[in-house]
Amino acid sequence: MWLGACAAASLAAALTGAAPARLAGFAAVAAMPAATGFILMSRFTQNWARIYFFAAWALAAAMLAIQTGGAGSAMIALFLVAPAYSIAIGGGDFAWSAVVSAAGYAVAAALGAGQSGLGLAPEGLALAALGLSGALMLIAREAPPSEPPARRIAELAHELRTPLNHMVGFAELIEKQTFGPIDARYADYAGLIATSGRQMAEMVTRRLDFSRAEAGGYKLHPETFDARAAAEEAVKLAHASAAQKGIMLTALLPEEALTLRADRVAVRQILANIIGNAIKFTPTDGRVEVHVRRADAMIAFEIEDTGPGIAMEDRARVMLPYERGSGGAEGSGLGLALVKMLAEQHGGDVKIGQSEKGGALVRVRLPAA
Q1: End-to-end distance of the chain based on CA atoms, in angstroms?
Q2: Helices 47-67 and 20-40, interaxial angle, to 10°?
Q3: How many Å apart are CA 169 and CA 266, to the nearest integer?
Q4: pLDDT one-digit tens code per residue, 240-277
Q5: What are the CA-CA distances from residue 12 to residues 1, 21, 23, 75 (Å)?
Q6: pTM of the full predicted structure?
Q7: Which of 67, 64, 66, 68 is closest to 78 using CA atoms?
Q8: Mean of the pLDDT values across residues 38-66?
Q9: pLDDT over 50 (residue 220)
Q10: d(Cα 31, Cα 34) in Å, to the nearest integer?
């Protein structure tokens, strides 16, 4: 709507004798907020993007008002758009939008010069701004109240986990023939049900964790601790799943302490995801090794395996949400994406390479204390 209004107002101004050079600059500034909105639209769940968007409207309004008469310009109507957007998209940002609009108005009033050479363009855009503001207010009034996406996902995950845990528990009872012998095929089917249920529960958990991190809801609580202890704990927790596949899982750690400054829970999550992936893709009788070493001002966790590895062309893609390697592996496609997000939140990084043992090598670096 706004881009169409800019085009229509500019055409009307050109037909009524507006100066071409001034009109071109006027139209470019007027279209700026719409371009900003297209760029930031996918980020509107985050406050910084909304505030940036509101600021774009206030800046454009101020620049146009300065060109067309300052405090007395018809462009003052544009200052209504940012608060109207704030109400329409929600999130409690009305105060910010009002602040940036008021600041823009003050600048326009102080610096505004007399209107010159723009024909009917200011009045046309002022009418469009009033119409857009009214439409946004109408949308806000009629739209049903919505909960934050992360909260809805958390509630859904909680609701799914309970029945999934029940399904897995009952299937395991049948598989173990706890209450009496059954046909071997039925026991095998029960085992498949239990395995599928555990996979679903893992996917739900990863989706929940990723949503929290993506929405900025994963708040880090840094503390100082020995990185070797975190690696040992992660290996102990993954030992049962490795033993089930006949995989040798070991932690090869230096004798000196490697003090880390990080969120302990997030580090546990990072290691669990990488070690879990290594076990998943390593064949029976393979090896998975966890190394911890100092790398300049960072502490590096390196997990290498004897699996098929990750192809060079897949290494960047598998760290994107919902992407998997060319091998067509099952899973949510969120494990490494979550690892990357948590590492970067700490000021660290993640790299995937080739292990000397033939498999994958995943290196996560986090700041040392």
Answers
A1: 53
A2: 170
A3: 28
A4: 889 989 999 999 999 999 999 998 888 988 998 899 88
A5: 16, 15, 11, 16
A6: 0.49
A7: 64
A8: 80
A9: yes
A10: 6
Q: Identify the pLDDT of residue 124.
A: 65
Chain CA centroid to CA 176, Å:
42
Residue bearing the bigger pLDDT, 143 or 245:
245
How long, in residues, is the chain?
369
Confidence of residue 312 (pLDDT cuts 50, 70, 90): confident
Cα-only R_g, the chain: 29
Residue 300 pLDDT greater than 90, yes or no: yes
Q: From CA 220, how far away is CA 218, in angstroms rounded?
A: 6
Q: Which of 272, 224, 287, 231 is closest to 254 using CA atoms?
A: 231
- 243: tokens are 């033993």
Tokens 């297209």 found at? 38
The pLDDT score that the predictor gives to residue 119 is 61
Q: Nearest to residue 118, comparing CAs of 30, 22, 29? A: 22
Domain ranges of the chain: 2-142, 149-214, 222-367
91 contact partners, CB below 8 Å, separation of at least 6: 47, 50
- For the chain, give the longest Cα–Cα distance: 94
CB atoms within 10 A of CB 304: 23
Residue in the block written with tokens 């979550």: 338
Give the residues across from 250 on adjacent strands: 289
**CA–CA separation, 239 and 237 (whole Å):** 6
Strand order, beta sheet including 349-354: 248-252, 287-295, 298-305, 360-367, 349-354
Pairwise pLDDT comparison (213 vs 229), residue with the higher score: 229
* Token couple for 70: 């300052």
Q: What is the pLDDT of residue 126?
A: 65
Q: Which fold has domain 222-367?
A: Heat Shock Protein 90 (3.30.565)
